[in-house]
Design brief:
The protein is of the alpha+beta class. Helices cover 42% and strands 16% of the residues. The protein contains nine helices and seven strands.
Length: 323
């Protein structure tokens, strides 16, 4: 039996919970500038198989984490009922503000928003210790946005890292002042979208995307730009001297270590290692492809045509070279 088709909303038509952190400038994944490009359709993120697997894995874990949350709350003496999952809502006054709640629970007779989160080993630190009350700020922003769209007194987060047997549970109360500030930022950002007025680029990746190709023209530097160029030139010169000194010292240490893998200090503890990494294996997929097609009886021009169809041209690197 085929699974029902999941209809995904057009995220260019609204501001959702996952957008809030970027609008507030606290997202570790995207900037206000790049979110603007996504909302206006100027940038369409490529959904690679690897990214799709990560998204699918997160969706598969949601009901498991929800079940773990319910079990944990019941063990703590609460009466819990799952009222709804993955429901989408729009703001009562501004329909371009929307949210999708992972779950809605009835806990001891009170309706509560609920968010299920999974985190890898590196992201787990944002949640603190098991019995702490830490919530990563980007998730806290999402939770408060949900309380704005679906007004309730509080939201509960369930976070699972690795193979935890019990979820970390975090409560966050509704805060009217924070909600008002978030709402104002979201309205201002949506107004930017309507006026096609993008925020300024903030990161190197923002600038790289905005100016992928040069126009072949020349412009005259103003006094501020001249100072920036000189500062960069000076820093590069210092960095080159430092890199040379670093390489020299590293070479002297390696010479003293010889074929030893570990260098020990006076207390017998390692202070330096020089080990072989795992051997790398590289496959020439073009050659392999051509060899495999050799068994199919295809001609060289047909093989070249197939390779051309699978070849994509991207903008060349645009290095900043100081003269």
């Amino acid at each position: 039996m085929n699974a029902p088709e999941i209809i995904k909303p057009d995220r260019t038509q609204f501001i959702g919970g996952s957008d809030v952190a970027a609008i507030l400038g606290v997202s570790p994944w995207t900037t206000p500038f790049m979110l603007f490009q996504k909302k206006t359709g100027a940038f369409v993120e490529e959904l690679t198989p690897a990214k799709q697997r990560i998204l699918d894995r997160g969706h598969r874990w949601e009901p498991i984490v929800l079940e773990m949350l319910v079990d944990e709350l019941q063990e703590r003496g609460h009466q819990v009922e799952v009222i709804a999952t993955n429901q989408r809502y729009n703001d009562a006054d501004l329909p371009f503000l929307a949210c999708e709640l992972d779950a809605e629970l009835l806990i001891d007779g009170e309706l509560v928003n609920a968010e299920m989160k999974t985190a890898n080993h590196f992201a787990a630190a944002g949640w603190g210790a098991y019995d702490a009350d830490d919530i990563p700020i980007y998730y806290a922003a999402q939770g408060m946005h949900g309380l704005m769209i679906k007004p309730r007194r509080r939201v509960v987060f369930a976070a699972v890292t690795g193979f935890d047997e019990r979820p970390m549970i975090r409560w966050m109360d509704r805060d009217e002042e924070t909600i008002a500030a978030i709402r104002a930022k979201e309205i201002a950002f949506w107004d930017r979208i309507q006026r096609m007025d993008p925020p300024d680029p903030e990161t190197a990746e923002d600038v790289k995307w905005l100016y992928q190709r040069d126009a072949g023209t020349a412009i005259e530097a103003d006094s501020e730009t001249l100072m920036l160029v000189q500062d960069l030139k000076d820093m590069k010169a210092h960095a080159k001297l430092a890199e040379g000194r670093i390489e020299l010292i590293a070479t002297q240490i390696k010479q003293r270590m010889g074929d030893a893998a570990i260098l020990l200090g006076p207390d017998g503890k390692p202070i330096c290692t020089w080990k072989n990494n795992k051997d790398s294996v590289k496959t020439d997929w073009k050659d392999a492809f051509e060899m495999l097609l050799g068994f199919s009886g295809l001609q060289k021009d047909q093989v070249a045509s197939l390779i051309a169809e699978a070849t994509k041209t991207t903008a060349g690197a645009r290095p900043l070279l100081i003269k």
